[in-house]
Specification:
Peptide deformylase; protein biosynthesis; Peptide_deformylase_sf; hydrolase; globular; iron; Peptide Deformylase; alpha+beta; 4 helices; single chain
C-alpha cells in the first residue's frame, strides 16, 4: 500500500524515534508499504518518520544511481544490487574525507542542495528478520544511509547547509509546509491552522 509522504514542517520529522522489537505489530506489512511508497516516489531511501511513524526503521535501494556513466562498472554493480532494511540502526563511526553531493528529500520536494558528508560509515542494525549486522559502507551507499539515519534522529538535510542557503530556500520550505508544491506522489502536508 502506498502511504502518503509527510511534508516538511510536520512535527513527526523532528521527533525522537524509538527502537522496536521483533513483535512490532505488522512489521513486515509496514516494511512492504515503505518499499512501495519509496518506489512510487522514485526515491532511493525512505525513513519511517517520512510516513508519519516515529520508529527507527529505514529502507535504502541505491539502484537508481547505478546508471551513472561516471562510475566504474564495479561501482555500478554494487549500487544496482544494494537494497536493505535497517531496523534500530546506530552509526558506530563516520570516517574519511568529507565530500559534497547534491541531495534532495521526498519530504522536501523540488529542493536540492549541496551537502557535505564523510566518505565512510560503520553502522550496526537489525534486518527485517531481526538478525544483527555491523557493516561499513562508502561512497553513495554511505551517503544514502547517512541521510536516512539523520531522519530517524530528527535531522533533515537542510539542517546541514549554510545559513545563507537556508535563507535563500526559506520561502520554498514555507510553501512546502503549506502544501504549495507540485509532486507526482501522495503527500501529507501539515496544516498551518492545526487541522489535518
Amino acid at each position: 500500500m502506498i502511504l502518503p509522504i509527510v511534508a516538511y514542517g510536520d512535527p513527526v520529522l523532528r521527533k525522537e524515534t524509538v527502537e522496536i522489537d521483533a513483535d512490532y505489530p505488522k512489521l513486515q506489512d509496514f516494511i512492504a508499504n515503505m518499499w512501495e511508497t519509496m518506489e512510487n516516489a522514485s526515491g532511493v531511501g525512505l525513513a519511517a518518520p517520512q510516513v508519519g511513524v516515529a520508529v527507527r526503521v529505514f529502507v535504502v535501494d541505491t539502484a537508481p544511481f547505478s546508471d551513472d556513466p561516471n562510475l566504474s562498472s564495479e561501482e555500478q554493480k554494487e549500487l544496482a544490487a544494494f537494497r536493505k532494511v535497517f531496523v534500530n540502526a546506530q552509526i558506530e563511526d563516520e570516517s574519511g574525507d568529507e565530500w559534497i553531493f547534491n541531495e534532495g528529500c521526498l519530504s522536501i520536494p523540488n529542493v536540492r542542495e549541496d551537502v557535505s558528508r564523510q566518505e565512510n560509515v560503520t553502522i550496526t542494525y537489525y534486518d527485517e528478520e531481526f538478525k544483527k549486522h555491523t557493516e561499513t559502507y562508502d561512497g553513495l551507499i554511505a551517503r544514502v544511509i547517512q541521510h536516512e539515519y539523520d531522519h530517524i534522529e530528527g535531522i533533515l538535510f537542510t539542517d546541514k547547509i549554510s545559513s545563507l542557503k537556508k535563507r535563500l530556500i526559506k520561502n520554498k520550505l514555507n510553501n512546502i509546509s503549506k502544501g504549495k508544491t507540485s509532486v507526482d506522489y501522495r503527500m501529507r502536508f501539515p496544516d498551518v491552522k492545526g487541522r489535518r
